[in-house]
């Protein structure tokens, strides 16, 4: 009798999702949780108390639904590792010098997670974990289930990074600004050293940590990607071949948010603003939406250039400003001295704090998206059929820019030449002038025949995206195959 019950419990899929505590990683994981639960999977979503408060509205909706998603809150050991209290998400980290402490705190989540799983009625069938939580490889091994990695980025950048790491073409180039070929891609793509992700640059502080990530990645069973095969044709197959692992493109996962309420509080409590009424009052495709994601910290003089550009332009806009620290007070001083908000009244809207990005992007009045090229923003822009003005900052964002501008041809570069390394924003001479911002916005909003073509291409892609997600579409089928495959692997490991 007891063994029949345990056999039955093993048949119930139980997926444990362990995201990196950063908005660009947690948000798509929440969407993945929803997609899995809609297929009858029991999901345990692991996070910490502060992050849980940001996801409150999501979990309130879950409680009112029949979805089996359970929240596991593990206290984040800030004090133990020398982090300020409440510093539980990368966007609350005061400085890069505390990054190692943050990763250390993440690794201390291993024991409480394993204690929880030891006492859980349902054995885990799969752990989907962000690559940064490398120690989940040990947890998966202990609980005899496959570990699947979620990077949070697309196949184009994953393949590019893989090939750059393997062949190291940058190590034989002296100049920071001399273009060289990214090896092994279906298209001819060039990059410079100045644009490379920080992970390719040797760093004594992080090399041991990166080695652990790489080792765990090599041992992983497969990779899930928030993308769809039609978008990254050539790239997903080559990446799958390169890593010799299973890969499932199951996105755009943001499309699981169907109604306005789901879109409104996605990822955090949206700042109070009447943006929906305001957007309703605009002309179709007339508004420029400007948002630089959750982590980017632009210096005040750069933010002021954006402000000046928006002030002198005649275009309607929504500008998202993250109210964080000194950068913000200097900008606020400028805004108030300039009487910026009085001057742009009726034509522009500032959102301070968290913007309901998905809701905004999917509104018919949005005509262009000035973005920092985080992968979620890219794929949300594509899903909404909005052409982009690309302003990459760091990480793999320059690669995302290449996909959007050179391969898909749905964006215009603002023209920034080098990455801004976190904590070095003041030092890097990559200031973009008001005129350059204006020029790129005009190209996207009013780019003549070329602009129309660009818009048509992204609108075509936006029609493919929901098709991929609906019953029978590529991402829908991939999600089914993914669940079946890891369940079979889990049974095999437990046998
Ligand atoms: N986002 C949002 N409101 C904001 C800022 C960001 O909803 O004010 C969401 C955005 O829709 C995306 C995620 O946060 O899903 C940011 O991820 P992305 O990969 O674009 O950039 P990151 O913040 O990781 O640099």
Automatic annotation (TrEMBL):
<dbReference type="InterPro" id="IPR002213">
    <property type="entry name" value="UDP_glucos_trans"/>
</dbReference>
<protein>
    <recommendedName>
        <fullName>Glycosyltransferase</fullName>
        <ecNumber>2.4.1.-</ecNumber>
    </recommendedName>
</protein>
<dbReference type="InterPro" id="IPR058980">
    <property type="entry name" value="Glyco_transf_N"/>
</dbReference>
<keyword id="KW-0808">Transferase</keyword>
<dbReference type="Pfam" id="PF26168">
    <property type="entry name" value="Glyco_transf_N"/>
</dbReference>
<keyword id="KW-0328">Glycosyltransferase</keyword>
<dbReference type="Pfam" id="PF00201">
    <property type="entry name" value="UDPGT"/>
</dbReference>
<feature type="domain" description="Glycosyltransferase N-terminal">
    <location>
        <begin position="16"/>
        <end position="253"/>
    </location>
</feature>
<comment type="pathway">
    <text>Secondary metabolite biosynthesis; terpenoid biosynthesis.</text>
</comment>
<dbReference type="GO" id="GO:0035251">
    <property type="term" value="F:UDP-glucosyltransferase activity"/>
</dbReference>
<dbReference type="InterPro" id="IPR035595">
    <property type="entry name" value="UDP_glycos_trans_CS"/>
</dbReference>
<comment type="similarity">
    <text>Belongs to the UDP-glycosyltransferase family.</text>
</comment>
């Amino acid at each position: 009798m007891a063994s029949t019950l345990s056999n039955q419990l093993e048949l119930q899929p139980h997926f444990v999702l362990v995201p990196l505590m950063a908005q660009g990683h947690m948000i798509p994981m929440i969407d993945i949780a929803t997609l899995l639960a809609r297929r009858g999977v029991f999901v345990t979503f692991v996070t910490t108390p502060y992050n849980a408060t940001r996801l409150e509205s999501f979990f309130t909706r879950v409680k009112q639904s029949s979805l089996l998603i359970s929240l596991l809150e593990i206290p984040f050991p800030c004090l133990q590792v020398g982090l300020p209290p409440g510093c539980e998400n990368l966007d609350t980290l005061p400085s890069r010098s505390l990054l190692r402490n943050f990763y250390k705190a993440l690794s201390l989540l291993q024991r409480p997670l394993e204690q929880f799983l030891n006492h859980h009625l349902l054995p885990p069938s799969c752990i989907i974990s962000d690559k940064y939580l490398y120690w989940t490889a040990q947890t998966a091994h202990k609980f005899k289930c496959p570990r699947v990695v979620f990077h949070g980025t697309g196949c184009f950048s994953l393949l590019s990074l893989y090939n750059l790491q393997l062949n190291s073409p940058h190590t034989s180039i002296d100049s920071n600004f001399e273009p060289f070929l990214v090896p092994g891609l279906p298209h001819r793509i060039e990059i410079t050293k100045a644009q490379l992700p920080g992970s390719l640059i040797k760093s004594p502080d992080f090399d041991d940590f990166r080695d652990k990530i790489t080792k765990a990645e090599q041992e992983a069973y497969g990779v899930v990607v928030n993308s769809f095969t039609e978008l990254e044709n050539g790239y997903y197959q080559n990446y799958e071949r390169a890593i010799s692992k299973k890969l499932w493109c199951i996105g755009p996962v943001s499309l699981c948010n169907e109604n306005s309420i789901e879109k409104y509080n996605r990822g955090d409590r949206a700042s109070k603003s009447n943006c929906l009424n305001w957007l309703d009052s605009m002309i179709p495709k007339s508004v420029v939406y400007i948002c630089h994601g959750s982590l980017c910290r632009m210096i005040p003089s750069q933010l002021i250039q954006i402000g000046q550009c928006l002030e002198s332009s005649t275009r309607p806009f929504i500008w998202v400003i993250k109210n964080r620290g000194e950068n913000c007070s200097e900008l606020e001083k400028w805004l108030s001295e300039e009487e910026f908000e009085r001057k742009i009244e009726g034509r522009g809207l500032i959102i301070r704090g968290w913007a309901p990005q998905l809701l905004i992007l999917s509104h018919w009045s949005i005509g262009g998206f000035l973005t920092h090229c985080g992968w979620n923003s890219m794929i949300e822009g594509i899903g909404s059929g909005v052409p982009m003005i690309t302003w990459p900052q760091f990480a793999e964002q320059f690669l995302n820019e290449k996909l959007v501008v050179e391969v898909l041809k749905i964006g215009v570069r603002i023209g920034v030449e080098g990455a801004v390394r976190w904590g070095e924003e003041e030092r890097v001479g990559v200031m973009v002038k008001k005129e350059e911002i204006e020029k790129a916005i005009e190209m996207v909003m009013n780019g003549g025949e070329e602009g129309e073509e660009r818009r048509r291409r992204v609108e075509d892609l936006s029609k493919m995206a929901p098709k991929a997600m609906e019953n029978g579409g590529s991402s829908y089928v991939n999600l089914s195959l993914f669940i079946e495959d890891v369940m079979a692997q889990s049974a095999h490991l437990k046998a």
